[in-house]
Amino acid sequence: MTVLLVGGAVRDLLLKRPFHERDWVVVGASPEAMLARGFQRVGKDFPVFLHPMTHEEYALARTERKTAAGHQGFEFHATPEVTLEQDLSRRDFTINAMAIDRDGQLHDPYQGHQALMDRVLRPVSAAFLEDPLRLIRAARFMAQLPGFRAAPELIDVIAQMRPELKHLSVERLWKEATKAFTGDARVFFQTLNEWQLDQALALPTFWLPAAASDGTMDGQLASWNAAAPEPLAWPGAWRAPNATLDLMADARAWARTPELRPALMLRTGVIKNTPRWQRLAGWIDDPALAPKIARARTISAADFADRHQGPALGQALNSAWLSALAGE
Prior knowledge:
Layout: E1 2-6, H1 8-14, E2 23-27, H2 31-36, E3 40-41, E4 48-50, E5 57-60, E6 63-66, E7 74-77, H3 84-89, E8 99-101, E9 106-107, H4 112-118, E10 120-121, H5 133-144, E11 149-150, H6 152-161, H7 170-180, H8 185-194, H9 197-200, H10 217-227, H11 234-237, H12 242-256, H13 261-267, H14 275-284, H15 289-297, H16 310-325
Parallel strand pairs: 2-5, 10-11
Antiparallel strand pairs: 1-2, 1-8, 3-4, 4-5, 6-7, 8-9
């Protein structure tokens, strides 16, 4: 049994980029051998196991065969006879089809290291065509890896794969988008546009800022949405989390209607310091608001109870909060 580090961790190690997850491939082992060593199986039919101590994923070397539409329409063949080269052949790009063994030796049957040095994304084999998400992943890698370009072999299959994009779930698309925002996400969307993948995905028209931005994905999307001529529609189409969509809407309102900012602060929960307000406050990052907020939070219904009751009390309290938040 041979255990090797594989995939993205090897790529990032060679690029001297930080990485947080390690995937391992196990050659020459059976499911029974893995279970006997204390590994825990992930799923009934998938040849992936969790290490008993580190809980990292260890996958048996396997081959795949496309049997149906969708990313689950694959038949796996995982036996001790499957070689490392066979396992690596099913991967998307040559830069992800490398492995390092326990002795530190690089196994690179598809010249992935050379592709790294050339900064090129090249499909490993014709199996690339079997999952249309790999086109989206290509755009994502272009965003994460500055200076990388698509190999001619990749460009040649775009038109052939484009019609299959309609089978992708929005959940898988959103996951790739979140990863793109760890790099220059503009490149991700520019690539989708250049390859005409946005049309195939029925994406609403999207707008991109002129310059790259820093910060979290939510923060960047909030800034994009605040600056765009029209509200960005694609995050909703890709079922972004409600918290993300709320922040985008709140940031746009903050940027475009300054006169309504006190009301927006109340609506997002500034008095009770709700999570929604905290997200907006983190995006605003304006220390000048602190004394106004502190003053508003000292105002309570008890201050008006001797003069107002019922709805009138609520109106008086709301008016006092608005005045305090406006600095009056």
